[in-house]
Design a protein that fits this description.
It is a single chain. About 20% of the residues lie in helices and about 40% in strands. It has five helices and ten strands; from the N terminus they run ββαβαβββαβββααβ. Strands 1, 2, 3, 4, 5, 6, 7, 8, 9 and 10 form a ten-stranded mixed sheet that branches. Strand 7 and strand 8 form a beta hairpin. The chain is globular.
Length: about 200
């Protein structure tokens, strides 16, 4: 597995971010597109804070094992490969008996600046955020600085870091992976309501 070196900046204005990216000389690699994924896990994977994801990214399909060891800039590990068929891969995992946790939609736009990847992410019931991923923490810090983001505001981990920031009542075990579906246009689930 390799470390994923990444930082998130939450509750951003995409139009403002795009202006900053263009001014810094960034290149838009992939315009905003709908992505869909299905997650799979087992008791053993959950004990390691890990899961498998099959994701249709619009221009490719990937299968990834992700594991969150700690909420730090390099605390997430992953192994990823490109496959041909989203539906076939989902079916293969279902046939193995590994539990499918959740069907999830998101929207993503991908940019590149100084060999770092900047993605603009949208998820249902969540304010927009960006991720900056690079080969080193220093590279990410430099890109964040060029885009006028305060490193002290950076967040680390999976998408649940953003959901927990916006919905502070969520416990660690409360995740979108517990929802059968996470789709745009659906009513907000009770998970996010502070009942």
């Amino acid at each position: 597995m390799q470390k994923e070196i990444e930082a998130k900046f939450l509750d951003v204005d995409f139009d403002d971010v795009r202006k900053k990216l263009e001014a810094a000389g960034a290149v838009c690699l992939t315009p905003m597109r709908l992505m869909r994924r299905v997650t799979f896990d087992s008791a053993e994977m959950k004990a390691r804070n890990g899961w498998v994801r099959v994701r249709d990214e619009g221009d490719r399909v990937t299968v990834t094992y992700k594991q969150v060891d700690e909420l730090s800039v390099d605390g997430v590990f992953e192994v990823e490969t490109i496959v041909e068929d989203f539906d076939a891969m989902v079916d293969i995992f279902k046939q193995t008996g590994i539990a499918d946790g959740s069907f999830q939609e998101s929207k993503r736009e991908t940019w590149e600046l100084d060999k770092a990847e900047i993605v603009l992410d949208e998820w249902p019931w969540l304010k927009p955020y960006i991720e900056i991923e690079g080969k080193t923490e220093e590279a990410i810090r430099e890109v964040a600085k060029k885009l006028d983001f305060d490193w002290d505001q950076a967040k680390f981990g999976d998408v649940m870091v953003a959901y927990r920031q916006q919905y502070p009542h969520l416990k660690y075990e409360d995740t979108v992976g517990n929802l059968a579906e996470v789709r745009f246009g659906m009513p907000m689930p009770d998970l996010f309501k502070n009942l």
